[in-house]
Model the fold of this input.
Amino acid sequence: MGGYRAHPDAITKCGTNVSGLADRAKSIKDKATAAQVPEISWGLLGMATTYSSYRELLDKFQQHLDEMAQGLTRAGEDISACGKDYQQVDRELAEKLKQIRVDAGVEF
Done:
């Protein structure tokens, strides 16, 4: 038989780990939000020239982190579901093989 072997528990754990990365993205966003430079710090020249670019970049960065967190959560859930599906298939296959042995009168 082929060399591929799925390890359902490892796949499920991987999904949990990937979902956990969403928390890191949220933490980075929280830190970036807390580190915002207030308008008054930019002075008149900064307000007139670079502050709007800074705000736009910060807003896009925060949106990106939100999207990362959502994507990581979704990917983790999907990977975990895959591991659980493998576990279910393994259980069902074991039951079918057991039934075949019983039907054939073979004891192991």
Q: What stands out?
A: The helical segments are 8-34, 43-49, 51-104.
